[in-house]
């Protein structure tokens, strides 16, 4: 469902970040991307999620070639099949947990109340629906962010250091839930991490070094 072929990317005025990167991800598969700080992991994740353009090569996401799309074409494709989870939880502070959870699914016009109830239960958020993000722990906030990301059943979940702000216990609990939920919803997961322990839990791993997959 995601094919990255010989992709290169240089930010204006800087040296090349990606130099001929190739990578693929099948439907429902989980892939960990590791690499030193500054090696281009977040850049590659953004390209995979149609968040930014690239200089050469091709990325095919859910059957659509990204090289031919402008900003609005990329935005439409993202709405259709991609969700993101970041290290900073990025919840909307003025919305309750329940409202945050259904926010993206509502925007995408793909609300499925039974699935959102199931997600809420599996994430252990049932009691917290009326709270606001500032009233939650970091682990609870990231569980809401994962639920919000998966509420519209995206084909691809992109996660950039999703447990980077959590201690080991909360990190393990969040990873357990994320891996269970992507399996249940048939979502492919492309996850950037510095943790060998987390990388080892995913189906496959790729390492970025010197602008290439090593
Ligand atoms: N918008 C941008 N404009 C210019 N340079 C950028 C931009 N975003 C990233 N870079 C540069 O591209 C390189 C790769 O950055 P990127 O964030 O992809 O690395 P990373 O492997 O995710 O790093 P980290 O593990 O520290 O988060 C870095 O040298 C960074 O400074």
Automatic annotation (TrEMBL):
One of its GO terms (cellular component) is plasma membrane. PROSITE patterns: ABC_TRANSPORTER_1 (PS00211), ABC_TRANSPORTER_2 (PS50893). CDD domains: ABC_MJ0796_LolCDE_FtsE. InterPro entries: AAA+_ATPase, ABC_transporter-like_ATP-bd, ABC_transporter-like_CS, ABC_transpr_LolD-like, MacB-like_ATP-bd, P-loop_NTPase. Residues 2-214 form the ABC transporter domain. Keywords: ATP-binding, Nucleotide-binding, Transport. One of its GO terms (molecular function) is transmembrane transporter activity. Gene3D superfamilies: P-loop containing nucleotide triphosphate hydrolases (3.40.50.300). It comes from the Bacteria. Coiled coil: none annotated. This is ABC transporter ATP-binding protein. It comes from Antarcticimicrobium sediminis. The lineage of its organism: Bacteria, Pseudomonadati, Pseudomonadota, Alphaproteobacteria, Rhodobacterales.
């Amino acid at each position: 469902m995601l094919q990255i072929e010989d992709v290169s990317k240089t930010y204006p005025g800087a040296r090349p970040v990606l130099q001929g990167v190739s990578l693929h991800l099948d439907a429902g598969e989980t892939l960990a991307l590791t690499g030193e700080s500054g090696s281009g992991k977040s850049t590659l994740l953004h390209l995979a999620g149609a968040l930014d353009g690239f200089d050469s090569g091709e990325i095919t996401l859910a059957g659509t070639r990204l090289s031919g799309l402008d900003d609005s074409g990329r935005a439409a494709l993202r709405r259709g099949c991609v969700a993101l989870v970041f290290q900073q939880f990025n919840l909307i502070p003025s919305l309750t947990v329940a409202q945050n959870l259904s926010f993206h699914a509502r925007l995408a016009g793909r609300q499925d109340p039974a699935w959102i109830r199931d997600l809420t239960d599996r994430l252990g958020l049932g009691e917290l629906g009326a709270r606001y993000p500032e009233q939650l722990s970091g682990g609870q906030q990231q569980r809401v962010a994962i639920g919000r990301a998966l509420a519209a059943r995206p084909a691809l979940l992109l996660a950039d250091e999703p447990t980077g702000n959590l201690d080991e216990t909360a990190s393990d609990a969040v990873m357990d839930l994320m891996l269970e939920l992507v399996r249940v919803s048939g979502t492919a997961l492309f996850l950037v991490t510095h943790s060998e322990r987390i990388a080892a839990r995913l189906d496959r791993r790729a390492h970025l070094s010197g602008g290439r997959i090593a």
